[in-house]
Design goal:
Number of domains: 1
Radius of gyration: 14 Å
Shape: globular
Structural class: alpha+beta
Number of strands: 5
Helix content: 10-25%
Largest sheet: 5 strands, antiparallel
């Protein structure tokens, strides 16, 4: 997952934007971090969730979720749950509906 995140942004742009993963025991949240761009917003990087991968222990499957404008996550029904995270990351890369990356 770390390698996938690192590969999303070219090296020359890392001072402006990063893609990272925040992990909890039940899910992985992919976030986009942006460098400070306005003084009145402060010196901290901003963080915006992009997608979430949730693990269901009973089925041993991962599911992909998209984020709405209210920061709520919803099941992405164009990709079936998978035992392989890479399958869902491939769909996230493809983003045929432009729901993840715009």
């Amino acid at each position: 997952m770390r390698r996938w995140c690192a590969d999303r942004v070219p090296e020359h742009a890392l001072h402006q934007v990063r893609v990272e993963c925040e992990a909890t025991p039940r899910h992985l949240t992919i976030v986009e971090r942006r460098a400070p761009w306005r003084e009145d917003y402060g010196p901290e990087w901003t963080t915006m969730p992009v997608a979430r991968l949730r693990y269901t222990k009973t089925t041993a499957l991962w599911s992909l979720y998209w984020r709405d404008r209210n920061l709520r996550f919803h099941n992405y029904d164009l990709a079936e749950p998978s035992a392989r995270i890479d399958d869902l990351l491939d769909e996230l890369d493809r983003d045929p509906t432009c729901i993840f990356w715009g």
